[in-house]
Amino acid sequence: MPSGLVHRFAGVDGVISLAAGLPPAEAFPVTELTARTVDGQDVTLGSEGRQAYLAQQYNFNPKGYDPLLKWLRNLTVELHGVQVANAPAQGPVVVKKKEPGTAAGGPGGDTAAAVALTVAAAATPPPPPPPAEAEAVTASGAGGTGGATAAAPAGPTDAESAAVAVAVAVAATTQASPEAPVRDLVLTSGAIHAIFAIISCLTDPGDTIVVDEYTYTHALECVFLPRGLRLLPIRGDREGLDAEDLDRQLQLATAEAAAGRGACRRPRLLYTIPTGHNPTGAVMGEQRKRRILEVCEAHDLLILEDDAYYWLYYPYGGESGDNPGDVERGEAEAEAEVEKGELEGRGGSIALARGGIRVPGLEGLPPSLLHLDTCGRVIRVDTFSKLLGPGYRLGWITAPSPLAAKLANWVQASTVGPCSVTQVLVAKLLQQWGMDGFKAYVRKLQGLYASRAAMAHAAVSAHLGDLAEWQAPHAGMFMWIQIPGDLDEGALLDALVAAKVVVVPGSMFATRGLQATLGWAAAPTQPTQPQQHQQQQLEEGTRQESVETGPRGPCCLRLSFAGCPPEDFREGVVRLANVIRAALLSRGAQERG
Amino acid sequence: MDYSRFLSVEAKRFANASLAGLVHRFAGVDGVISLAAGLPPAEAFPVTELTARTVDGQDVTLGSEGRQAYLAQQYNFNPKGYDPLLKWLRNLTVELHGVQVANAPAQGPVVVKKKEPGTAAGGPGGDTAAAVALTVAAAATPPPPPPPAEAEAVTASGAGGTGGATAAAPAGPTDAESAAVAVAVAVAATTQASPEAPVRDLVLTSGAIHAIFAIISCLTDPGDTIVVDEYTYTHALECVFLPRGLRLLPIRGDREGLDAEDLDRQLQLATAEAAAGRGACRRPRLLYTIPTGHNPTGAVMGEQRKRRILEVCEAHDLLILEDDAYYWLYYPYGGESGDNPGDVERGEAEAEAEVEKGELEGRGGSIALARGGIRVPGLEGLPPSLLHLDTCGRVIRVDTFSKLLGPGYRLGWITAPSPLAAKLANWVQASTVGPCSVTQVLVAKLLQQWGMDGFKAYVRKLQGLYASRAAMAHAAVSAHLGDLAEWQAPHAGMFMWIQIPGDLDEGALLDALVAAKVVVVPGSMFATRGLQATLGWAAAPTQPTQPQQHQQQQLEEGTRQESVETGPRGPCCLRLSFAGCPPEDFREGVVRLANVIRAALLSRGAQERG
After folding, report:
1. What is this model's ipTM?
2. pTM of the entire structure?
3. Please, what is the average pLDDT of chain A?
4. Which residues of B touch A415 (CB under 8 A)?
């Protein structure tokens, strides 16, 4: 339905629309949809507020289903302390005051861990929220079903006018505070859809994107390279992206662009994963984030902050779990504590489980790049995939309002918008939980991942202690194992196949020496040899390592401890240890022989 | 056919994800432990059971059985879609379109639907034509009974119940990955089976638009020319074709939609221009059209027209994007019996009663006939698709659940020659990982629970509903616009296309419609003549164009623009949707519309005289 046409009828009563190509409610097969939650609640979409209808109908607000959008806007105000279009006006921005060490989550290694624990204990609790903000949260979270009904458009005509109303309100709010960057949200079909949208809107083929030296494979293989982007890899350390290397590489790239060498245009976009980095697991500290923002400001870059693992932050998880027995007790206690429902208020200090596992909750999440960004350079990607489940296919973008409008156009063009069924269902679930229920759920989730991480850390310590190097995980799903000794990754992989354990080799995440086979200016050349594992027939462009790059450094492996039962993980690590030991022995024998 | 000449640069850059390749190395090995996948554990999911209550009072439940609640909340790693749903749709495709589908049970001789051309066309509008259509329809040959292999395929998918679903559902992350690999291997095996006939495969998408976006991304480069109807689907035009930087080659239409002879003529001209180095750099390679219940014109393409279009596309080496979103909403006899609104309402009630009675004729039976006002074709009487008629592998078909179950499920699917399907699956996986798992698993369960008979009954009921709305709309338009406009009686889809003679100014008409509080969509919003993307592929970003009155966003650089060199647009056209609006509102809307048109014509006449 052309939005402009509807706009002309905005605010007019008694309009009859013969415009929209919407199926009538009578054409839908489902009258009621009920989700039973783990805690035994029933979340039902029925005739109330026409929610079953809305779940099966088009949603015409290009930014998402209004009640869900509203909930997320309020959450964004609370979590990131930024001004959000269409969210209740905010008082002074709540800056989360934290010691730098806390935000970093205590980067790995046993000594660092001990330090992190000490620092954490001394962390200043965040100030109590100003009234305006508290009200915003109440309106969204604790409002229950009444609020949902009021916010839900009542039918096609209303849905269209609601979209118009949103647009008008956005315009009004945007004017309110001309200095601070105003953000808005756009719901997407998951984080990948968000990244695809951002790359489509902010890069042209042949452009250069700045990336970590190891990064998320899907973004790399399925988005950046097919787009025809050049990659500018930046060194990483235990806190992720190295800000000084970023500065150095950008200076070089700018000089090259000015001299007409290298890439034609200077880089304009950085992609990074600050919390529980995929694949390295690194957690970026607040000082590091501030420095990266400075560098990007100096070089006029936008930042794509992919924070898919933001919620899965457990800075104290790994340390307390060196003894696997402790860990399992920790998980049980964490769950018991959550079920007890004794949650501290928003202004309280970081929650502490009585047993093994401490979790930061919503209040203890690290300050995001978005939060620290005063210039409007950060485009943040969040997802429900690791929060509720990937199958809901829901994520969201938080971007400066003018960019959000453009991104919403792209999202609407590509899919009309994310699944209405899950948008309406998740909105209802969140409203029914209320903010307290949501906080409890996040804490439980952090407890679960913290216990898995502790288990993984313990297993790796027990079996790979003398063979590899790693950091204790503090966020996300992954451990990054570095094996010294110049092993051949291909041979190691063959041995892993024989030993029946699947881990992902580091080269799959490596960005150094990668180039899209078909550049933007390059004519389609000789089809490359299809790689051994590729099935389809139309292969022309694939990942290729260019020959001029040097050695890759130590052999790295990514271990996921999220989806695999603890006993399987331990057995997998035992097999891995055997394979590595054999490879190192054989390598030693070769060198001697 | 070698499809590489049709692929975009972007599509050529796509490869299978290397992670999938890694998993492939472990395929068929027992006792593998995977520390590879970044999947949340089942304990991290909030929902243990999801139940949908259907209009007929059935409960469709995703629970622990077959781990369906888990699968609904987890990633689905088969880039073509959730296996049980994919299997169901593959079997449906074999039955409905009679084509060979990868991974669907091997088929005997292809069931060619024998129909009189007139029947397939659904009797294009006008009262005389309608009467003819009725006669032809009565004489239509019933399709032959299905061969055993096909019947078995349908039973296996539709009537198998939950047992089959459980068996097919992957049991966990590792299994899901191996299942994806197994599918790929099986596809390769099946593809080899019959090297001559084009083998198709399916790819599930987040609705038809996602499918169209994927196809355009994989098969066009900026600056390419796409062949389109002179009026076409606005979203595809404004949100996909123009932002892609495509040039448009509009083809004249008539009551059967795209004019095959004009297509031939325009393609000859374009080819000659490309050869002479004038006009578009590359000759057109893709046709986009909507054969059933065309948006906006409502036209239904007859079988002969489809055959001729296929011939022309073969001669000019074009692929065809068959957007058949309204395929299910086909009611060739709906409009005719409903000239009296009283009849229509009785017809709707009776159609529903008949469906609820559950007395459905078998697949081999003749077209179903409601005892009262409304006859519906059912699944068996759907027109032969371009896909069905395509023997060369030139058709890429887009279907959607949006008009079948509901747009909110955000599920559609592509049927394409297998090599293209693999590429399109890559693109879909790259853009969203895949469509929503919750709705894929739910819809698969719903369809399995319904069984093929239940599905057929649902389609008939849906056709009855739309047929009655169409009849009501046709009656209202006849009563109030009879002396003011021209139109065809609708035989499919959601729309009536009203042409107003008398050279009215569309902008002034629209202003009057705003004042009269009735929203209809002006024809210019669908027009492809004279449209050009403002930013061409080779054009440097020029002066930002003036944002049009109705556009809200701030970063406008490229928008629709009419180039000055084009001539007048022809008669003023309006699209009326009768789908989503209650019948009494529709009638009132048409009354208001009639008043506006009458006033405009009077004022126009006064101007001419004055």
Report:
1. 0.80
2. 0.80
3. 77
4. 206-207, 209-210, 213, 410, 432
